[in-house]
Write a structure and sequence with these properties.
The structure is a single chain. By secondary structure, this protein is of the alpha/beta class. The chain has two domains: 88 residues, no CATH class; 172 residues, 3-Layer(aba) Sandwich (Rossmann fold), CATH 3.40.50. It has nine helices and eight strands. Strands 1, 2, 3, 4, 5, 6, 7 and 8 form an eight-stranded mixed β-sheet that branches. Helix 8 packs across helix 9. The radius of gyration is 30 Å and the shape is elongated.
Length: 282
């Protein structure tokens, strides 16, 4: 784990050095403030009164206060000064700003209009692949409208078998559900991508990230909001899982997985974080 910068700890965490924090807040900052106040409000106005013969000092004080308020407001809200100051401080003191993170895991009870699943390879020890379990869950309540099935060359044929099985069980009867999989899905093909992941890309998280982002664009064209979809990463490889999680890092993009416990409940992960951009070092 990366050790936190000691300078950052001094200013941001009073528990790390209470004496320094007490000195900073109780003595140093008030001393600076008092010195500035004496210089401007006392010495400067005394000079105006004695040397320049100004009598209406209260009016000048009011005008100066309003001017300073307007100036600082413009600096903060109308310019990038605050961002520049933060970036400069980070570079000078080698600080890394705290990244807000939120992670909640809870049992998924509701269903969604859109579903993204990863088709796993056939395994005789597992009667129902993760994609099938996820689809059956969202078939409840007649809410599911669109399902995108991400496959590899090893799992493509099993996606067709799974859909035929669902039809045989009459789970798709009288339902207008659209399933998308394979290499000829036009909306993704127009973007140079496919729901059938090439063999040389199946371990590339960046490629999976692009595919999932393309699916969200396609869903938007079909009238679905990002919150109307949920992505299940259970059936994918570790690299595919990483790519899907990266694509669904924003608060409006939902994730789910199938628990390995006896009852196999489907769990929803509500994940939100920001990744700080790293500049390439020349």
């Amino acid at each position: 784990m990366k050790r936190q910068n000691p300078v950052e700890q001094l200013f941001s965490d009073p528990t790390k050095n209470f004496v320094f924090f007490l000195f900073l807040s109780a003595f140093l900052l008030p001393l600076i403030s008092d010195g500035f106040s004496k210089l401007v409000w006392d010495d400067f106005f005394l000079w105006l009164k004695t040397n320049q013969g100004v009598k209406e000092l209260w009016l000048i004080k009011l005008a100066l206060a309003v001017a300073m308020l307007v100036l600082f407001s413009l600096l903060v809200y109308a310019t990038s000064f605050a961002r520049w100051l933060t970036q400069t401080a980070n570079q000078v003191f080698n600080l890394s700003p705290e990244v807000p993170t939120k992670l909640e895991v809870e049992k998924l009870l509701e269903t969604s209009r859109g579903l993204i699943v990863v088709m796993s390879r056939k395994n005789s020890k597992i009667p129902e692949p993760a994609a099938e379990v996820a689809i059956k869950h969202h078939l409840q309540g007649n809410k599911l409208e669109h399902c995108w099935i991400i496959c590899t060359n090893d799992s493509f044929e099993y996606a067709g078998e799974m859909l035929k099985k669902l039809e045989g069980e009459q789970l798709l009867q009288s339902r207008n559900i659209h399933f998308y999989y394979g290499d000829n899905y036009k909306p993704l093909k127009e973007q140079g991508l496919s729901l059938l992941i090439p063999s040389n890309e199946k371990d590339n998280p960046n490629h999976i990230n692009k595919v999932v982002n393309a699916i969200y664009l396609d869903a938007n064209e079909k009238g679905l909001e990002e919150t109307d979809l949920i992505a299940d990463y259970t059936g994918g490889t570790k690299s595919m899982t990483a790519g899907m999680i990266l694509a669904c890092a924003s608060p409006d993009r939902r994730l789910q997985y199938i628990s390995q416990s006896d009852k196999n409940p489907i769990m929803e992960i509500r994940l939100s974080y920001r990744l700080k951009q790293i500049k390439n070092k020349k």
